[in-house]
Amino acid sequence: MLAKRIIPCLDVKEGRVVKGTRFLDLRDAGDPVEVAALYDRQGADELVFLDITASYERRAIMIDMVARTADQAFMPLTVGGGIRRSAERFGSQCIVLAIDAKRRAISHQPGTRQGRVAMSQASWEVYVHGGRTPTGKDAVAWAVEGERLGAGEILLTSMDRDGTKDGYDLDLTRAIAEAVRIPVIASGGAGTLLHLYEGLVTGRADAVLAASMFHYREVTIPEVKRYLAGRGVPVRL
User: How many domains, in total, are found in the chain?
Assistant: First the structure.
């Protein structure tokens, strides 16, 4: 069985790592270069660097900051924000499709003769520009389309859970993991070791991403890996 991955995330704005709740109320969490060096020492499997306002501001990513961060990250580094690359040019293994999704309101069907009310299936809408712009696209359908277009992996963030520490949206994570054949990274809501375990096991993700619990020293990456290994989850120790 392939090892599951533990991935810290650097949301970067104006040259600083920030963390918010549901994409709002951003708080400072340090210098990207220093934070990347810390996660490298702790043995993170990968690192994600997201220039969170680049697409909205219609500019290229802060390449100098990315380069300085990469100098401290001796592990795979995924970079997002203002990127205009293609799988045809670089190969699917290099392209990660980031999906920011928000749960749609659950509709109710009319009552039956027995007086019962049936709920429709849950669904999620894709947002772009750092969660500012709804697209009308269904998240599961877009994940399938993204795989067809050449994405080699999906970074899936629940906007409803982001920064809440209430746990991943396991229904969303599992729905997309079961719909595609490429790896899925669960993101948005991790606050405890149990949440990470649930994202990998119940949500069927191939990797779990977290920010707050790592940035604010609530838990270290070695502690996460020891916990998961103790519960039978294959990880790189």
Answer: 1
H or E stretch at 47? strand 47-51
Active site (annotated) includes residue 100: yes
pTM: 0.87
> Which letter, b or e, does each residue of 27-62 get, where b requires 16 or more Cβ atoms within 10 Å of its Cβ?
eebbbbbebbbbbeebebbbbbbbbbbbbeeeeebb
Distance CA(59)–CA(64), nearest Å, equals 14
Is residue 25 part of the annotated active site? The answer reads no
For residue 9, the domain's CATH number is 3.20.20.70
100, 162, 169, 206: the catalytic one is 100
Q: Which tens digits make up the pLDDT trace of 217-235?
A: 999 999 999 999 999 999 9
Distance CA 52, CA 71 (A): 21
